[in-house]
Amino acid sequence: MAEAPDGSDTGTGTVEGVAKVVALDDGHAICEPEPTGSCGGCMSAALCGVKSGGTSRRIIARRFSLVNDVGLKVGDRVVVGIAPATLLKASAVAYALPVVLMLVAAIATQHWSGGGDGAGALGGLGGFLVGLVIARWRATRMTSQGELTPNYLRRVRTPPSGTECGLD
């Protein structure tokens, strides 16, 4: 089960994250995911834009749109979620597909070329590149169909003034 930012069980079965509303556009709230506590210490933090501040192109590229039927305002923090099956599907497309195609192409090329390692390596590289192209195409399609867009779950409760956190 998912756990809310306040530690309570949400019972939604979704993978949750916190995002901040950074703009409003024609009935939609444009949100930017907030980095988790472990993001700053990650080896790839500079690559995803966490260490470069909030205006990095990579952070802007991670923005997503939510239908604003609950009256969200700029600056609101919201909890969003995505189904675990969707996350698994996206991971398989992004990571498993290129690697599987690389292995299949390397084995097939090495077998058909009479056992040459160089041919197998080139076949593997070709399979990997084809896998990346297919993964990119599939991810773009999934995004355009809205499969990868998180769903609004609730607002993050703002702590009362004079307190340090929103926990009861």
Can you walk through the features of this model?
The chain has one domain (15-155). It is 39% helix and 19% strand. The protein contains four helices and five strands, in the order ββααββααβ. It has helices at 45-48, 57-61, 84-112, 117-144; strands at 15-25, 28-33, 64-67, 77-82, 151-155. Strands 3-2-1-4-5 form a five-stranded antiparallel sheet. A hairpin with a 2-residue loop joins strand 1 (15-25) and strand 2. The two termini are 21 Å apart.
Q: What's the main sheet like?
A: 5 strands, antiparallel
Number of strands: 5
> How many separate structural domains?
1
Any idea what the shape is?
A: elongated
Provide the gyration radius in Å. 21 Å
Distance between the termini: 21 Å
Spell the H/E element sequence: EEHHEEHHE
Report the average pLDDT across residues: 77
What is the helix content?
Answer: 25-40%
Unreliable stretches (pLDDT < 50, length at least 5) are 1-11
In DSSP terms (H or I, runs of 4 or more residues), the helix count works out at 4
Strand order of the largest sheet: 3-2-1-4-5
**What portion of residues belong to β-strands?**
15-25%
Instruction: Determine the structural class based on helices, strands and strand pairing.
Output: alpha+beta
Summarize, please:
The protein is of the alpha+beta class.
